[in-house]
Amino acid sequence: MGRAASQRRAAWWRAARTYANLVPFIFFALFPFYFMFVTSFKRNAELYNLKAVPFWIQTGAISDHYTFLFQKTEFLTWMKNSLTISVLAMTVSLAIAILAGYSLARLRYRGVASFGTAVFITYLVPPTLLFLPLSQVINWLGLSDSIWALVVTYPTFLVPFSTWLLMGYFRTVPREVEECALVDGASRMQTLTRIVLPMAVPGVVCAALFGFTLCWNEYIYALTFVSQSGNKTAVVGVTADLIRGDIYYWGSLMAGAVLASVPIVVIYVWFLDYYVSGLTAGAVKG
Amino acid sequence: MAVRPRALEALELPPPSGRLSRLREWWEQEHVFGYGLILPALVLLTCLVAYPFGMAIYFSLSDYWVGSPGPFVGLTNFREILGNDVFRQTVRNSFVFTGIALTLKTVLGVWLAVLLARDVRFKRVLRGAVLLPWVIPTALSTLGWWWMFDSLYSVVNWTAIHLGLMSAPGPNWLGQSNYAMTAVIVVNTWRGLPFFAITVLAGLMSIPREFYEAAEVDGATSRQRFWHVTLPLLKPVLAVVVLFSTIFTFSDFNIVQVLTRGGPVNTTHLFATLAYQIGLQGGNLGQGAAISLFLFPMLALVVFLQLRYIRKE
User: Does A55 touch chain B (CB under 8 A)?
Assistant: First the structure.
């Protein structure tokens, strides 16, 4: 009786310690978002009052910073650009990566191992290494300062990533299923699209989600290849075009950052488990 | 052999004859099909990764400016860069930044993963919250940090002053060199921690429970269990994550560009931000390309170690 009670107390203490340790981490992770959110609804008078407590809104929430975004800036155009670019680049990359991933994971031919290595190496090449020459390639292609510059360049980091991710999923499809289909007279392409692909749907969803997120969040290419305000993505529009000289702009800046993050947050909340599994698969299988 | 014709009949395919069927037969060969499927990816990566990489080398060896291709000048760009104080400062910054941020991310990431692996309630919500900084566009969340480190209205300073930890007005985070570096490192750690925690967590989950039970029977304390069971078994996962993060921390652009633009007085410049400033804003593509090529040795090292690790698996 006494032993059970002390054991229970020990378990309770351990749980309490775990939560107490977790609190600072969660606070660290979430506070910046909370603070951005709160800031975006504050009156300027309160924002720039050193005596006001910064953690919450004291003099009433306002939506002026948001209406400013819609009426005085090209925010909606930036959002539309981001959406178009992300969907197009993600779709094209996914198609290329499904073919490449299947080829590398399942087919036997000379050079397949070195192709796999090449894809893996390009997966590790950081965009910051190539943005200068790429800006010239974009110029020569006549795509500079248009959203097509980004639709064309985003697959350079999406395809290696998605291929690598999908290879892991294709390998989990049993070989026998495929061989049965081939023996039954299905063509190789039919085997891929009707047999293997349906069994790797979680992988495809995962690659699509990550692809969309990576495109939406991309910064250096979007900053470098596009300069006309009407062609900018949401991330670059908000970080570059909302800052106007010495005028106080923090409210609308935070409002822009919050709104431009909304699509990603919505997708994230819906598909949380895919993000977790994709993140670990992408790195650990690498 | 007997199965095939019957299956073909069942699918109502035309009998094999003519040029089309010969083409189909050719396409159905495993190696032809294999090359065919990899071709689009290969073309893309050759044109938009390998070719620009070659161009980067060409730029770095010539006096190339935006809009005016210049003559071949050999290693002049590299010589000029290496003699430049700003560049040397950038090299120092990059190693300090990467070294400290990576250490913080590794230590805190393992710690957080161990906490999340315990039997806690709201597991899914907690993981979701932890991963959020990694999912939200970095450039946008860095704007939030910029505001938090504001020279006048910094919430960090406000809190520290009101807790009596700091005397007013507190440091100008983004305007003083060491503080600016601290700020940039804090934001990078904040952004990268989820990746470490969630990946290490997956590694932790794959450690069989029996190992811990055996250690417990042997009378190991929880500290001993961590150092002698958990950590050695985590090593492979940790190696991959650290290598991966090394290259992406070393080549970071977003955080520094939004938060400090390399300032104050170049004390937070990294290779990428300096290359952007000189190559794009200054128009000196030759030198800019040379600067970003300094990322290459680190990339090569990481690729080499990763590949060796994969082969060993």
Answer: yes
